[in-house]
Write a structure and sequence with these properties.
Strand order of the largest sheet: 1-2-3
Strand content: under 5%
Number of helices: 11
Radius of gyration: 25 Å
Helix content: 55-70%
Shape: globular
Largest sheet: 3 strands, antiparallel
Number of domains: 1
Order of helices and strands: HHHHEEEHHHHHHH
Length: about 280
Amino acid sequence: MLGGRPPRQVPRGIGADDPRGLWREAAAFYAGLLTLLVALISPVAYWSGSYIWIRTIQDMLLGVVVPALIVLGAPWLVLLRGMALVPASPRTGISSWQPAARDGSPGEERVMRPWVAWPIPVTVAFGVIWWGWHIPVLYDLALRNGAARWGEYLMYLGAGTLFWLQLIGSRPFSPRSSPLRRVALLVGTVVAITVLAMVLVFGSGVLYPAYRGPAHQVLSVVADQQLGGAVMWTGILPPFIIAAVALLIRWLSEEDADALSVGLDRLLRQRRSTWPSRPGLR
């Protein structure tokens, strides 16, 4: 079983000193798995083949909610321990890993940095994938072709996971960008998805003809895609707003800590007295 075998050498910082944090991570990870099942094997998955607005819900679950919960769950250490990997060093253990030898000694170092070192390319790729699968040709193809549909699912999950990794981090990976820069990336992503939602909401023609059929006798395809745009417009905001507020709070905390540190340094710094010394004394 993956992660079932105890490692020969347990690195520090695994989280054994914070059992509540481990329980929170476990709850987030299993919530992500449950949400994944809802998106793939529930009435949401069934009716996504008939209604665009339900498929929009499925897309948001796969591209935003599930990756965010998995990243918060931080399953990477369990996976690395299951593969007998240990941190390379306490100083660079966040991003540098090495396989453990049979005797428990460290092996050759392997660096795993690109996931969290390229925030702008990852954000751009996330937006391109989101827009790309909403192009009418690809959108209809994913409805009719099973391979294309599963390719869409995997790309949403992969891009979403990388996106949240470089925004909020996940033990043992830590984002390289400052909180304010990550807020800027969030704002840019919200703008890109909002523009796509506006195209759907204010469009007056049928963008996805593959959805024409008996299911739209009451609700027309145009009304369906407009409703889907509205769901995207409003549904994408809550998780991104929560992340932005958390990043802003962290930025303010760091600013306060830096200001406090500078103030203490000034108070503790020894200053030379301006009073003249006594004669004969140095």
